[in-house]
Amino acid sequence: MGWIALSGKLSIACSVLAFVTYLFTLCPTVFVEGSGELIGAAYYLGTPHPTGYPLFTLAARLVAVLCPWGSPAFKINLASALFAAGTVGSFAWLLSWRGIRPVAAAGSALCLAYSHTFWGQAVISEVYGLSMALIVLTMGCSLYACQQRSLRALILLGWCMGVGLTAHLNQVLVIPGMLLLFVWRWSNLFTQYRYVLAACLAGLIGYSLVLYLPIRNGIGPGFHWGDLSGWGAVWDHLTGATYRSSFFSLPVKGMLLNAQRWAISVGNEWSLGFVPLLLWGGAVAWRRDSSFCLLVGTAMLCNLAIALNYHRDPNGIGVFFMLSYVCWAVFLGFALDDVVQRVPKHWVGQALVLVLVLNVFLGNYERVDLSNNRVAERYGLDILEDLPKGAVLITEGDDVAFVLDYLLRVEKKRPDLVLYNRVGRGSDLLSPAERRLPGIRQQKLQKTREAELARGMAPLFYLVRRRAPIADYEFVPSGLVYRLMPANDSERARLIEREIDMDNAKFNGSHLDPWVRKIQSNYWFMRAEGKREKGQLREALEDYIRTAEVAHDSRTVQFNVGLMALRLGDVNRARLHAQRAIEIDPFQSYGHRLMDQINSRTGHGGSVER
Q1: What is the DSSP code string of 448-504?
Q2: How confident is the model at residue 513 (pLDDT cuts 50, 70, 90)?
Q3: Which fold is adopted by the domain 511-610?
Q4: How big is the chain by its Cα radius of gyration, in Å?
Q5: Domain extent listing, the chain
Q6: pLDDT reading at 510 higher than 60
Q7: Are 113 and 14 in contact (CB under 8 A)?
């Protein structure tokens, strides 16, 4: 059998096996964080959050059109699984092409497929599976161009790079290694201006897919993150201006903490026993294929340079290390190949690879299996079904707001309700022109609009309690939300007596995801809020404590519980949760501010070191 035929069959087999696994563990509905937003954007051809992801939006929409069954959420989740499975097959093909034996190439590809973060992103609506596919293809094209030194190969590389940038901006992390590779292996390329210009032009053609964003923005019922009228707004969206302040904002201690998290996560992706194999594989790769090793190693270093300097919720930082996990999987392929080569009996080597794959599969299966996880959907439905007819709901935050947006926008639940996102994501109280005003003007307009809604005929509800936009109005807990109403309104007593169905809040082993547990903790928090309003302070504190136990690794939940404990007069409990919030993220300011309040009340000076 020829090499091409063998590699093709190997690639297809790995893709099919990965896809079947993803299918059986696929989330059947909307999930947490940005899942609802991406589904709403892809299903109706909208414009999702920066950097826009036009390739994912269009490709996922195509899958949704071709898929004859399932809900919109299921179809877009299925698209993610399909793209991730394609990455696995492409990865196996790339390793096989670089001389890795089929059993080692397949083993490494499947270890990547079943790694914790990659598998977890493959079974929900997310862009990373598709992004990694383009990175793998770009790496292959870079190596191929250096070998062939042909204009055609360089044009193909440029086009892959351009298209890859429309999948995710982490594509740029491949560029430094690619340039180093060309300097080393094709040094006179940069004097061949026709070749360079042709590659750049091909890249622009591939990247031209981003024109979809300004053309489609604001059109149709799909989710639109914000207004993209004007090239300045388009540029900010494409370059992720919203997130710039989070990059390179950490002190050295923060970078070291992220480095520690990354080192731990590498072991958690597979198991600690894999770490020696990964390091060994790096040495083998340099000895046997230095070009590939340079490309992969530089990409990993670039990924670390960016991710270690990125400040965000620790529960979500793993996806920003995903490129490094793919690079480690390359080194794993070389390590497995070296093992197979050294084992005298062929079947023994195959058995060892199989054992490693099964070890990864079984180690991560329970953590990523979302086939029965409907917590986010049920939470959203519990909120919507409890609202009175014609109500207005103002949301904020990523973990719940986009779940509600999906249920209303895509699944058409409760069409009588009106939903606004407080910061204008998807549905806005302000017009696009007003969103371009200075921040203080926007805040005043926002307050005015909310006040008008509060005085209107439709009851006004909030997902999060904020400062009331009108004097003598107050937020009253009403089930899982708050109603804004005049103080001492006669309906207040009826609202706080509402019982919350806690079935969805029950923790079990299938809800290991921290974002899912955070949603579950909201049930306990809102039940505590209702009890506090009724004067049942001891019972309220018990439910606040349960809130913190369920979402024990959430910095915001620990802060909120600490704040409520302080308001209830339990200073020691407040200090405990403030300290926990600081331990989870020492560089988020609100934990320190809460600790300062506690110290001020108790007479202790100073705060925890930033």
Answers
A1: HHHHHHHHSSS-EEESS----SSTTEEEEEETTEEEEEETT-TTHHHHHTPPPP-GG
A2: confident
A3: 1.25.40
A4: 26
A5: 3-368, 374-485, 511-610
A6: no
A7: yes
